[in-house]
Write a structure and sequence with these properties.
Shape: rod-shaped
Helix content: 25-40%
Keywords: Disulfide bond, EGF-like domain, Repeat, Signal
Protein name: Oidioi.mRNA.OKI2018_I69.XSR.g14725.t1.cds
Strand order of the largest sheet: 1-5-4
Radius of gyration: 65 Å
Number of strands: 29
Bound molecules: 2-acetamido-2-deoxy-beta-D-glucopyranose
Largest sheet: 3 strands, antiparallel
InterPro entries: EGF, EGF-like_Ca-bd_dom, EGF-type_Asp/Asn_hydroxyl_site, Growth_fac_rcpt_cys_sf
Domain EGF-like: 95-132, 234-267, 277-317
Signal peptide: 1-15
Length: 466
Amino acid sequence: MKLLCSVIALAAASANDPNDFMKRKSKLLHWHPSVGQVLKEQDNYVVTEDDVADWQACGDNAVCTNGRGWNFECACAEGYLDFDPSSYRKFGACVYDSCADTTCQDNASCSVSADGAASCACDDDYYYESVEQFDADGNSTGFADTCYFDACAEDPCADNTDCANDAGSAVCSCSAGFFDYAGDASNCVPDACGSSDDCSADATCTVELPDVNGTAQWSCDCDDGFYGDGVTCYVDSCSEDPCQADSTCANDMNDYSCTCNAGFYLGADVNGTDFCWTDVCDSANPCSADAACANQADGSQECSCNDGFKGDGYECTNIAGERAANILARAAEFEATAAADLVNDTRAAGRVQKALNAFNNDIFFVSEWTQGCYNNGDLQADAAEAADLESSEELLGWDSDDLCAFADDLQTAAKRFARSFACVSSFGYNAEKNMAFNTKRVHKQLKRQNKKLKNFGKKIDAALDC
Ligand SMILES: *[C@@H]1O[C@H](CO)[C@@H](O)[C@H](O)[C@H]1NC(C)=O
Ligand SMILES: *[C@@H]1O[C@H](CO)[C@@H](O)[C@H](O)[C@H]1NC(C)=O
Ligand SMILES: *[C@@H]1O[C@H](CO)[C@@H](O)[C@H](O)[C@H]1NC(C)=O
Ligand SMILES: *[C@@H]1O[C@H](CO)[C@@H](O)[C@H](O)[C@H]1NC(C)=O
Ligand SMILES: *[C@@H]1O[C@H](CO)[C@@H](O)[C@H](O)[C@H]1NC(C)=O
C-alpha cells in the first residue's frame, strides 16, 4: 500500500536535542542517517544503530521510497499489513500478516487485527456453528467449529415457516399460529384449533386444510369414552359394557339402552333385574302347532290354543272337527235307532239310510274344509255359535226315542254347524286342494253342502211321516 505523507512544519521548541533534530529532519527531508555519521549541527553527535532504527522516515516494517521534491512514500514491507494508512509510518502502523501462519477452516477467511492477532471468520453466506462430532462407534469426539453454508439465505422453506440452519441444512418449521399439516413443514396452514374452535370440551380439535377462499378449517372428534359430532359429545355409556348378557347396548345422548339380541327376549331374573332369556318360543316351541306360544318374563313359556281350537295349549283340538265328530256320532246313533225301528218297513228304512248317507257326507265335507280353514288360521266362526258349539252341550239330552225329534235335533245341529264356520279369505287344507280350489269355489261348495244338509230334515220327515 502506498501513501503520500504530508510535510510537517518544523518546530523550533527543542532545537538542541539531537533526537528531535533527527526526527524532524527525517520527517521533513528524504534523509537517512547512517550509523557513525557525525551531525555537525548537533555538536558532532555520532549517530548510533538505535538512532537509525528510531529515526527512519517510515515506521517499522515499512519501506520508504523517494517521492517528488520533498516528499517520500512509505509502504509496509512484504508480509506486513498497513493498519493505519493515515498515521505516520514511524509509529508502527505496519503489522505482521499473521494469517500467513494461520489456517482457517473451510469456508472461512483469516483477518489480522491491529494488534497483529489473526482470526478466522466465516465467509459471506456461511455461518459459524460449533457441532459435536462423533466417531464410527458413535462416541463423541468433541465439538468442531465449522462454517456451514447459510441454507436459509436461499429461502428454501414454504410459506408461513421459520427457517433454521442446522449444520449446513435448512430446517423449516411452521411459524407460530400455523399448523404443520403435512408433518414436514411443506404445508403450514392457519391453526384454527384453540380458543376459537367450537369443539366440545370432550373432543379433540384437528386442523384441516383451508377452504378455497383460504379460510381456516378444523374438525372436532369426540375423545375416547365419548361420541357425537365433536361439537357436542355425549358420554359413551356403552363403552363400559353396562348391559346384561345377550343384549346390545345403544347410546342415547348421555344415557343408554339395552336391547336383547336376536333369539332372546327381555325378562327379569329372580332378583327382578333385566335379563335376556332365550326365546324358546322361537327356538324350541313346546306348544301345540295349533297354539300360540308366549314367552314369560321369568323365562318360561305359556301356550294357548288358537281360535277354533281348545285344549291346554300343548294339545289343541280343532273345534270344528270335534263338532263334526260329535254330530256324526249322534247320526250313527240315529241310524241304529232308525234301523231298529224300521226293521219291518224296508222302504222307509232305505229312504232314511239314503238321507243319512247324504247327511254324513255333507257333515264330513263341511268338517273337512272348515278344519282346513282352522289349520290355516283363517276360519271365521260366528262367535256365539262357536262358543255354544265349543261346549258341545247342545248335543246332549236329545230324545232318541222319538226319531222325528231326533232328526230335528240332528238337523238343527247340522245347520248351526254349517253356518258357524266359514273360510274368510284363502283356503289351505292341503296343497292339492289349495291348488284345485280357489276360495270362491270353496265358499260356493260349502254353501251347497249346507243347503243339502237342510234338505236332510225334509227327507227324514218324508221318510218317517213326521
Ligand atoms: C466450502 O467448503 C467446501 C469444503 O472445503 C468446499 O467444497 C466449498 O466449495 C466451499 N464453498 C465455497 C462457496 O467456497
Ligand atoms: C465407544 O463406544 C463403544 C461402544 O459403544 C464403547 O465400548 C467404548 O468404550 C467407547 N469408547 C470410548 C472411548 O468411550
Ligand atoms: C368463497 O368466496 C366466495 C365469494 O365470497 C363465496 O361465494 C363462496 O361461497 C366462498 N366459498 C366457501 C367455501 O366459503
Ligand atoms: C340375586 O341376588 C342374590 C343376593 O344379592 C345373589 O346372591 C344372586 O346371585 C342373585 N341372582 C342373580 C341371578 O343375579
Ligand atoms: C215286526 O214284525 C214282527 C212280525 O210281524 C213283529 O213281531 C215285530 O214286533 C215288528 N217289529 C216292529 C218294530 O214293529
